[in-house]
Write a structure and sequence with these properties.
This protein is α/β, with parallel strands linked by helices. It has helices at about 1-5, 20-30, 40-45, 50-55, 75-90, 105, 120-130, 150-160, 185-195, 205-215, 235-240, 255-270, 280-285, 290-300, 305-340, 345-355, 360-365, 380-390, 400-415, and strands spanning about 10, 35, 40, 65-70, 90-100, 135-145, 165-175, 200, 220-225. Strands 2-1-9-8-7-6-5-4-3 form a nine-stranded parallel β-sheet. The chain starts with a helix and ends with a helix.
């Protein structure tokens, strides 16, 4: 198992309704070392449910996946783990047992994080599964069930004693759901409590976060979940940070929309014309983009690739229009500054560039303004204006009156820009 985590240090978490073939493909391409399928119901598999078995399918070019089972009956969990191993063979990297999901529909049946309240039953599940499979078996759980009652270190020891080959720890209590912040300190405490590998999970949203978790907790690998929603690029940032390299730049508007399109295309290829499940992914990809608030309502009615493409086209056009408008306004500012600093064009250029770099539009959209050298004369009319004003207001007398006259004329000339 240590060898496995030595090779697979950056993992995509098992997320219901998210970690499907399309999303796994994008995350693996972006740098995920290993991806989990969506969590799989042992009870559903035992009923030969084709919808459940569908979750175990591999993407094109995906040589291995990890599979997470959830359930609370030791015999059912064991029999379905054995079936998965037989069916998947070498394409199965390892099996994980879900003891951390806090969703009401899961815990109400005694599954997921509800098992943290019954450590003896949890241990019997691990023993039962380990007794019938040859692949490594891990357990994923939380800091504890009740808030302010940390049981993860002792729970981890029980799972190790039952035969678990590794554990994954999420730094929140089950009762917290996803409120507040994940406590990474519990990952370090679990690391000290057990001798098997430990995977850290919770609130990794940048390469720096992953590096800090690795340093502060000593975990053997990091698992990324919600931080990757609408942001597969997070895996390349994490890989760079762990390798001691500069993180790649955040994706531009064009790159985000292109990724959303590809995601929709992959879903269409896999699921056919109706790709309703793309709606939530589209919301994540376009979060914070110009026009995103107005587009959300339309996304809720999209069902086909063509529907989504139409919304993506509009978002891209809005972003470009805003960029063009900002460039036009910035150009006016650059011209005024450059022409009003005839004696020191380098100062004007530095000032213009600093304004351009701090532009909120540039930061929000990811578009880069073109470099505009100063001083500049965008048209013959402006060159003529420059000459006339220079004759009326010699260099030594260019005060407020000269600048106001310049602004008045420039406003007229640029009005249609």
């Amino acid at each position: 198992m240590e060898g496995l985590f030595g090779k697979y240090r950056v993992l995509l978490a098992p997320m219901a309704g998210v970690s499907d073939i399309a999303f796994r493909t994008l995350c693996r391409e972006a740098g995920a070392d290993m991806a989990f399928t969506e969590m799989v119901s042992a009870k559903g598999l035992s009923f030969a449910n084709e919808k459940t078995r569908h979750l175990l399918a591999l993407a094109d070019g995906e040589s291995q996946v990890a599979v997470q089972l959830f359930g609370h009956e030791p015999d059912v969990m064991a029999s379905q783990a054995a079936w998965i191993e037989q069916e998947m063979g070498e394409s199965l990297a390892y099996l994980d047992i879900n003891m951390g999901c806090p969703a009401r529909k899961i815990v109400s049946k005694g599954d997921g994080s509800a098992l943290m309240k019954e450590p003896a039953l949890s241990a019997s599940i691990v023993r039962a599964v380990k007794g019938v499979v040859e692949h490594p078996v891990t357990v994923k759980f939380r800091r504890g069930w009740a808030e302010d009652d940390e049981t993860a270190p002792t729970f981890a020891r029980r799972m190790e004693e039952a035969g678990a080959d590794g554990v994954t720890v999420h730094g929140r209590f089950a009762e917290q759901l996803y409120r507040g912040s994940a406590d990474w300190g519990v990952i370090a405490r679990v690391r000290e409590a057990v001798s098997v590998p430990v995977v850290g999970n919770g609130d990794i949203r940048s390469g720096a976060d992953a590096m800090r978790m690795a340093v502060e907790t000593g975990c053997d690998a990091v698992m990324i979940a919600r931080g990757a929603e609408g942001n597969p690029w997070l895996f390349s940032q994490v890989q760079a940070a762990l390798a001691g390299e500069p993180e790649p730049a955040p994706p531009t508007v064009e790159e985000r929309i292109a990724m959303a399109r590809r995601h929709a295309e992959l879903l269409t290829h896999r699921e056919g014309r109706n790709i309703v499940r793309m709606r939530k992914h589209a919301m994540w990809y376009m979060a914070g983009l110009p026009g995103a608030a107005a587009a959300r309502g339309r996304i809720n009615y999209c069902t086909t690739l063509a529907d989504f493409d139409e919304v993506f086209d509009e978002l891209l056009e809005i972003a470009r229009e805003r960029c063009d408008l900002s460039v036009s306004r910035q150009y006016r500012s650059d011209f005024l500054l450059s022409i009003s600093h005839q004696g020191c064009p380098s100062d004007a250029r530095r000032h213009c560039n600093s304004l351009r770099q701090s532009s909120p539009v540039s930061k929000a959209t990811g578009f880069n303004f073109p470099h505009i050298a100063a001083p500049s004369t965008p048209s013959a009319e402006l060159a003529r204006l420059q000459r006339l004003l220079s004759s009326d207001y010699p260099a030594g007398k260019r005060g407020l009156s000269w600048l106001m006259t310049l602004i008045k004329h420039c406003t007229c000339i640029f009005r249609s820009a």
